[in-house]
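Apologies for my clumsy wording, but can you show me some protein sequence, whichever is easiest, together with the matching structure tokens, please?
=====
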Amino acid sequence: MYQGEYILEMRNIVKVFPGVRALDGMSIKIRPGTVHAIAGENGAGKSTLMKVINGDYTPEEGEVVYKGKILGKRTIMETIQMGISMIRQEMNPIRQMTIAENIFLGREPQKRKGFVDFKKLNENTNELLKELNMPFEASQKMDTLSIAAQQQVEIAKAISCNASVIIMDEPTSAISDHEIEILFEQIRNLKRKGVAIIYITHKMDEIMEIADEVTIIRDGAWISSGPIGNYTSDKIISLMVGRKISNIFPKEKAPIGDTVLEVRELCSRGVFRNISFSVKEGEILGFAGLVGAGRSEVMRAVFGLDEYQSGEIFVNGKKAEIHRTEDAIAAGIAMVSEDRRAEGIIPVRSARENITLPFIKKFRKHGLIRKKAESRMAEEMIEKFQIKVSTPEQEIRNLSGGNQQKVILAKWLLGNPKVLILDEPTRGIDVGSKSEIHRLMCEYAKQGLAIIMISSELPEVLGMSDRIIVMREGRISGELIREEADQEAIMRLAT
């Protein structure tokens, strides 16, 4: 067990990406044998900080000090060998392999001639699992385990590497209350062994229960640190969100009409349950919540991308049978996905082709595409949406993120939908493009389009929404009208 006061220190860490100062003089001290929670909004810099610790990023300024020694540039593997491990929110085990093979991957005991000693491998693993009170067998395949069980295996893997510091990134985002208790017991066991836990979460109840100390960060900067006894949930929330809303996201009023989309008691096993909401003509309905709350999953089901087990969807008062995206499009629903590169664009195709592709039938006559009509319409949308291209034939992969997003918007609005779902519409794009997209949202709302917007940026949700629905752990936890909504009210419902 390390005897120094601090096992890990971040001193004045600065990390810069093009146009973004992700960490701005960050300093945090971690004591051995404690749980140190890191609290902050989405985008506050938590993930960047952790990647600096584990060697994924090299800071422009500042020092990482581990067991009294300044760490230089290093790989993730070198960091693990030093005794710092990270259990990521999105675990990626090799599911076809056993627990033993996953724990000791790349470090397997060997026989002569370099062959793996599977007997020794399983013996070592079973000894480790017994020591950690984990009810598994070395020979079990990873694909037979729950998410919580996989987390426990990741903990065992970290311990097998003699980890003195373990970073846990949103470890309870996909597990049940019972499984959370199991995890917390493992954490307490690790504390008794002198292991320091850096615990990243948005959930206030977890911070108050498991943390010994807490650090609050905001916009890449340190805000506050101290023993958990010095804080209440409300105080942490206030420090997390502590900025005023200005006119960065101006909302233009639009006349609100009849209900266009109504969702009743929508359920997807293990993902979300009893989801009911409606959105009207000219309304921008915001969906807020933390990562893993189920917001995107609900909208993917409404758009026919993912299955749901029960519930009903109505468009203009008529029940819509939506099982595929084609059904949703036919019903008048369009969706801009969160992952524009994977699901929104065809990178090797031109801006013109990306805009017209979903509605190419509009330009077909006698089995042939009317190229002039297609090009003319694409050019009109490019001009209307102020998309910066050298030519409509420019490959979309060569456009900026903001211009790619405007191409996707143009594509779906070309079909004159009744409902437009926007999942993180301004993520990863520059301020100028954000402003343009917000302007377009307001313009189309005035024309009677019903808009649903998912955003992890609270100022965006507050600045653009007429109503806000907040989700927590797969359920709707509350609804706020524009006049009563603020950041703290949303965070209380989200946590």
About this structure: The chain has two domains: 8-241, 259-494. The chain has a mean pLDDT of 86. The first strand starts at residue 8 and ends at 17. The chain is about 35% helix and 25% strand.
